[in-house]
Amino acid sequence: MTFEALHLKARWLGCQRIDLEACGSTNDEAARMARAGAKHGTIVIAEQQTAGRGRDGRVWQSPEGGVYMSAVLRPPMAVIDVPPMTLAIGIGLCEAVRTTGAPAVLKWPNDLLVSDRKLAGVLVEAQSQGGKLEAVVVGIGVNINGELPPAVAETGITLAEAAGTTIDRSEFLERMLAHVERWIDRYVSVGIEAIIPAWQDRMAVGLTARATVDGAPLIGCVAGLDSDGSLLLRDEDGNVHRVRSGDVEVLRPAC
Ligand code: BTN
Fold it and tell me: Is the CB of 107 inside a 6 Å radius of any atom of ligand 1?
């Protein structure tokens, strides 16, 4: 693995670390630890997951060879400000991946792609009580080495394939923690205005996407992000629509 000569080290992300050979979902482990009082920056990492999950209850295939990590955060923010943290984490993840030479790009809201295939995903979940944010669980899954399961062999890609070399999993994890921490800090201290341009600089361009807007299907070209982190899609008449929630499916790279 040929990382560029940038030696960032995480300061607080990973200050407490639990390594597991296997578990259901590291997000569930981290959520349980958060409820039990785990401190800000605690991480749990598994070699494999038997019930890894993504957004909207999708399965996240988690065979040996990948990185499956969840962190407990206790940021001083309101519950409403948690969702855009996904964008900030995506930027850090993208930076870490690019240090390996893999040309990763971001797909809204939580995917990292190489050659239109999915390399990594982010799952952010909030814990609150009486409207007050208690903790945020940040889950990151990255396909690193080895074979992908048949279900995702065509749509997914490993970092080893994307970078054209085998990857040292531990070294990549350290790099990932450092870059992700930097962007979480930036989001917490500066806010979404620090995130939008950085995310747009790294987003997949020229993508056609299908989304659901106000319950109606929409096909459009990915045009960037709105000031609150919503996705902007341009339809064939040139009208731009904001996608606040719901999924976006990339159809083809042809806008
Ligand atoms: C997605 O693509 O929708 C997000 C995938 C997130 C997967 C990671 S792997 C570590 C953590 N544990 C989980 O069960 N999910 C996240």
Answer: no
Closest CA to ligand 1's atom 15: 53
CA 179 to chain centre: 12
Q: 237: CA distance to ligand 1 center in Å?
A: 36
Contact 54, 107 (CB under 8 A): no
Tokens 């999915």 sit on residue: 118
In the chain, where the domains are located: 3-202, 208-251
CA of 9 relative to ligand 1 center, distance in Å: 23
Give the architecture-level CATH label for domain 3-202.
Answer: 2-Layer Sandwich (3.30)
Q: Is the distance from CB of 12 to CB of 51 less than 8 angstroms?
A: no
Q: Which pTM value belongs to this model?
A: 0.94
- Average predicted confidence (pLDDT) for the chain: 93
